Every structure is written in C-alpha cells, then in structure tokens.
Amino acid sequence: MQQRVRVPRPGFFGLTALWTGGLVALAMVNQAAGDILRTGSLHPAELLSQVPAWIGLVLPFAAFAGGLTAAGLSTSSVVKRAVLLALLSYGLMAYASPRAQYRARASAGVDVAALHPFGPETPEGIRARRSAVEADPPEAFSFRTSRPLERPPNWLTYLLHSSIALAGFAVLSALLGQRARMLTRGLSPPWRRLAHWALGLASGVLFFGVVLGGGEWVRAHPSRSGVLGAWLPLLVPLVALALLEIQRRTRGRSYRGRGGA
After folding, report:
1. pTM attached to this predicted model
2. Phi-psi bin for 119: left (phi > 0), alpha (psi -120 to 50), beta?
3. 186: exposed, middle or buried (C-beta count within 10 Å: 0-12, 13-18, 19+)?
C-alpha cells in the first residue's frame, strides 16, 4: 500500500510571502492593463520601479495570513516575526520605492531636479522639503506635481508618519490572524476558512478605507494634524484585536467553567 506523501504547509513567512507575491502580481497586471488601455503602450521600466512600493504596501496586509499559521506560538514570537515584516515594509516604502521611481523618471528624461529638488522622496528628502517650505512659505499651498515646494507642511508630516504607521500595521495584522485561528479551532474546515477570509478581508478593507480617509482629511486643510491623520487608522486593528481577545478569554472561562462542573 502506497503511503500518501504529505506536503509541508508554509509557515509564517512562507504564507505571508505567497500572499504578498500573489497580490502584488495581481496589482501589477491590473496596472499594466490600465496603462495599455489609457495610452496604448506599456512602460516596463516605470512599472518595475513600482514593485518595491507594492510589496511594501501589501506586506502588512498579507501578515494576517502568516498569523493564521501561528496559533501555537506565543504572542511575543508572533510580534518578533511581524516586526521583521514591518521593518522590510518600511524600508521598501520609505527608501527603495522613492529611489527606484526617481531613477526610472530620470532615465525616462523627466526633469527630476524640478520635481524632486531634494532628491528622492525618502524621509530625509521629505524633511528637507518641509524645512524649505516652512522657512519660505508660498503665497498659497498647492498639490500640483510641478510645484513641489508648495506642499503644505502638515501633508509632508503626514507622508513621514504614514509609512511608519502602515508598516506597523503588519504587527497588528499578524496578531489578528493568530487570534482568528485560535477562535476558529472548533469550526469545520469550510466554515473556518470562511471565517478567516471574512475577518482578514473586513479588517484590511476597513483599515485601508480609514487610511484613505485620513489622508484626505489632512489634505483638506493645512491646519490639520498630519500625525493624527497618519496614526488614527491603527485604531481599527487595535479595536478588532481587543474584541477578539475579549472573545478568546470569555470562551476560555466558559470552557473552564464547564470542565469544573
């Protein structure tokens, strides 16, 4: 009788990488198709320059899938793994992506000196631009691409903090995945998968929606706090995590009570 070969299941980093790769590929295909429909041509160099940004953006959301594999790990172990994802995400969004796009635009003949007077839009470049705007404020603030020195300082502050907050979502996303797996152990496989999909999708979409809303709120007026607009979206996963933790502890007390009876 032949023995069935068991294929090892991917662990925390493996499943996160699989979901990240799949979502990034889907996003890139969608963007390439949109570019072809709009302009009738495809610019591979420009498209590839956006890969670091897409990976950095998707990683925190894909960390939920990694958390689903970590039900047997301690909270501190999950946090340590997720912090590595957060650091990678931040590095890609804050440094690798701006530099890649800067080089791609320069290679395409774009006047990068005019669009990016302080070099790539890394944190150092953004802080230098904010200092220049604060030292010599324009008559009116503008978000026109051709006028980089007219951005309101609160928006530049938002850009500095939003990449940190978004990368930090990886930690909360991974913990949400872990708690979701713990709470669905008693369900049948189809219902368990459905619950994982529902929670992962709902938390990710709601968080991203609040991120977009926070950005628009900051853009609407120069007096609004860029720090608040960047960090407020993290309340979504924090509240979700608190509710799941309450549910987990309530269920644990219920099991102990029935066992004692």
Report:
1. 0.90
2. left
3. exposed
Helices (H), 69-188: 75-91, 97-107, 112-115, 123-135, 153-183
| Residue 261 pLDDT class (50, 70, 90 cuts) | very low
| Rg of the Cα atoms in the chain | 22
Q: What is d(CA 98, CA 46) in angstroms, rounded to the nearest whole number?
A: 12
Check if the beta carbon of residue 162 is closer than 8 Å to that of residue 211: yes
Residue 8, CA distances (Å) to 15, 37, 172, 178, 185 in order: 12, 42, 26, 19, 20
Identify the band that residue 260 occupies on the pLDDT scale cut at 50, 70 and 90.
Answer: very low
Return the HEC string of 197-215: HHHHHHHHHHHHHHHHHHH
Residue type, 14: G
Which residues, other chains included, contact 77 with Cβ-Cβ below 8 Å and sequence gap of 6+?
A: 70
Residue 240 has, within 13 A of its CA and on its CB side, a CA count of 26
DSSP letter, residue 252: H
Which is nearest to 148 in space by CA: 179, 117, 175?
117
Nearest residue to 63 via CA among 23, 97, 13: 13
